Amino acid sequence: MLAAATPPLDMEIPYTAEARPDTGVYNAKIGLWLFLASEVMLFGALFSSYILLRVGSTDWPQGLLSVPIGALNTFVLIGSSITVVMSWLALKGNDFGKFRLYMGSTVLLALLFISIKSFEYHDKFTHYFVKLKDGTELTGHIEGKPFNWSLPKLKASANAPGEIAFHPDAPKRGEPVPDSPHETLRLPVEQIAKLESFGPWRNTYLAIYFTLSGLHALHVIGGILVMLYHWGAGHQLWRKSREQFTNRVEVTGLYWHFVELVWIFLFPVMYIL
Amino acid sequence: MSDNNSRALQQETRRHLLVFGAVALGTILIVLSSFAPLATGVKIPVVLAVAIAQAALVTGFLMHLITEKRMILSSLVLTGILFVALIFLPILSEADQTHHFLLR
After folding, report:
1. A94 to B1: CB separation less than 8 angstroms, yes or no
2. CB-based contact, A261 to chain B, within 8 Å
3. Domain definitions of chain A by residue range
4. Which of A75, A58, A59 is nearest to A67 (CA)?
5. Is CATH 1.20.120.80 what the domain over A30-43+65-124+203-272 is classified as, yes or no?
6. Tens-level pLDDT at each residue, chain A (273 residues)
7. What is the distance in angstroms between the Cα of A217 and the nearest Cα belonging to chain B?
């Protein structure tokens, strides 16, 4: 019975290269579009949550993220979207060398996007909010830029310092400028009531920012892995079935454009509005 | 490869480069709007309109939806309807709050 259920080794999966007569497209394409439809609903639910949280909040932080860095990342992703479509066009023109050049460029641009994103994340985990016991609240950086400190962690460390050197943020537009704005403050640890980095726990805005951008970054990493496969070991298929390989690259490109599409909305929502 | 095929590929490449330029221009407009002294109720529709135009270019030309088969388009229309409901139902449920938010 078991032997009868096992498919023969030489079985061909139908409609990987040619279009299926009833749908008019090859199977991978329709599968990918249905997957993207589910992704639209996943990100849609998160954007919907964002709207609900934003509209219901009385205070929403502005200017926590750098617009030039976000814009740079947008240009990187738009560029990668063009190179991925060029790699597919190269295969359509039977130019395998150009395919590898464009696909390699897409992977490099995607890696650049992730590097910039991780730089932004690192900046948030080395940016601190401090509340002193006298009620004073400060935001800024601790000397040495320690990663994700908290008051219990600081007190529990083996060589716990008696005080921390703190560089306060420059005042925002409209806020009063202190007498010496660039002065380094020496804050005794016993005077600190609260110390936390600008991680997702800091406020609702950062929680939804890390959720949305983190999920998007995971999609970018997934795309990088698939594109690396096509660029490397996966290209063996080009010798066996050019049409099927071209189709694989096309659906990968569709996925990559969707990743760009999500970012097109994420950038203004998180950095500008 | 025939001359016709080669010419079609060249045309398609040119079209994609134009889309790249238009989407990049949209990003520049969005960045410039962040520095403009606009009220929230004006800034949000302006920025979202530019983002939607960018998204239309990407889906229409880079994802080839303008020439896509009916089977795929019909499944996407259903997704679009559900997506709009997903986005607008919370806004409508908080309509009074939304009104105050946009007037800020």
Report:
1. yes
2. yes
3. 30-43+65-124+203-272, 128-197
4. A75
5. yes
6. 555 667 676 777 888 888 888 888 889 999 999 999 999 999 999 999 998 888 888 888 888 999 999 999 999 999 999 999 999 999 999 999 999 999 999 999 999 999 999 999 999 999 999 999 999 999 999 998 889 988 888 888 777 778 889 999 887 666 666 666 568 889 998 999 999 999 999 999 999 999 999 999 999 999 999 999 999 998 889 998 899 999 999 999 999 999 999 999 999 999 998
7. 19
**What residue spans of A57-94 are helical by DSSP H?**
67-92
My answer on whether B77 and B98 are in the same domain is: yes
**Partner B contacted by A42 (CB < 8 A):** no
The boundaries of the domain holding residue B95 are 69-104
- Please tell me if residue B11 touches chain A, with a CB cutoff of 8 Å: no
Judged by phi (left if over 0) then psi (alpha if -120 to 50, else beta), residue A139 lies in beta
The number of distinct structural domains making up chain B is: 2
Q: What is the DSSP letter of A190?
A: G
CA distances to A117, A261, B51 from A106, in Å = 16, 16, 23
Supply the pTM of this predicted model.
0.90
Prediction ipTM score: 0.89
Same domain, B3 and B30: yes
The answer to whether the Cβ–Cβ distance between A29 and B33 falls below 8 Å is no
